[in-house]
Amino acid sequence: MKLKMPQFNLFKKKSTFARRFTRSKAGNFFYCVFLVAAGLFSMLPLIYSVVTSFKPIDELLIFPPRFFVQRPTISNYLALPDLLSNLQVPLTRYIANSLFISVITTFLYIIFSSMAAFVLSKGRFKGKTALFWCIQMALMFNSYTLSIPCYLIYSKLHMIDTYWIYILPNLASTMGVFLMKQYIEGYVPDALLEAAKIDGAGYWKVFWHIVMPTVKPMWLTLMLFGFRDIWNVSPSNMIFTEQLKTLPMITPQIVAGGTARAGSAMAMTVIMMIPPILVYMISQSNVMEAMTSAGIKE
Question: Residue 211 has what DSSP assignment?
């Protein structure tokens, strides 16, 4: 007598399991509606700033306030040079300072972070793990808690009231080193570097011609975050010369005018938002790939 063994249809159970945890078309529709609504809600401050910058003075003083503008005007933008006419330097000097400092510092920030990450990832020296742990611990410190030691260091280095106060402190950001190291470990195999060394390539050639092209999504991500932070930096109590000040340092002077200058204050805010948005549009295709890849490597 032959015993019949019970047969299990694994594919059927897998299909049933998949159907049980798959959203229906109605579920997908409401899920998309929720995401779109959440995205639009997060954009409300940006939309409100742009709309308010085109409001005339009578619509700024109306009560209850209206969200949208009825009679748009560009007078708030045209009034900015007059509001700053009593300053020692024109508005264009502040814009030039912000662009110069942001571009130069962002470029050096990417290069220095990449070089440090390459050494920590592929270098062979004692204390590498301990050094990387120090970098990770530095991520937890708030910059305000270190303001007094930083001021003493900057004073000893004679950096106060110079362009260096904008550039050098931002080059030591540990976030760029951390993200770049994680990305290099995941996407730059050791076999590729060994092959380059066998062909006679030195460390500099390996770094510039192999590592940097490979990690392009990550240095574009660092470009976005670095430019955003440096563009908005305002080293208070360290810059006293008017010719060295940037846009974030003169914005409070416009905002201090009260409701009558709310339109001009919003116009200045919109001008401040334009460069970071342009940088995001250039690098956004690589940001998600780099962040999801670098964040899970250990």
Answer: I
Mean pLDDT of 119-142: 82
0.85 exceeded by the pTM? no
Q: Hunting for tokens 């904008």 — which residue is that?
A: 166
Who's near 255: CB < 8 A, 6+ residues apart?
Answer: 261, 265
The one-letter amino acid at 37: A
Tell me which residue of 62, 77, 221, 237 sits closest to 148, measured CA to CA: 237
Specify the amino acid at residue 234: S
d(CA 55, CA 52): 5
C-alpha closest to that of 131 among 142, 146, 116, 143: 116
Q: Which amino acid is at 269?
A: T
What's the rounded Cα separation, in Å, for the pair 68 and 55? 9
- To the nearest 10°, the Cα dihedral for 195, 198, 199, 202? 100
| pLDDT tens readout for residues 38-78 | 888 888 888 888 888 888 877 777 777 778 888 888 888 88
DSSP 44-97: HHHHHHHHHHT--HHHHS-SS--SS-SS--SHHHHTHHHHTTTSSS-HHHHHHH
pLDDT tens, 211-228? 888 888 888 888 888 888
Contact 100, 227 (CB under 8 A): no
pLDDT-based confidence at residue 295 (cuts at 50, 70, 90): very low
Other Cβ atoms closer than 10 A to 221? 26
Residue 39 gets the label, from left (phi > 0), alpha (psi -120 to 50) or beta, of: alpha
Q: What is the largest CA-CA distance in the chain?
A: 107
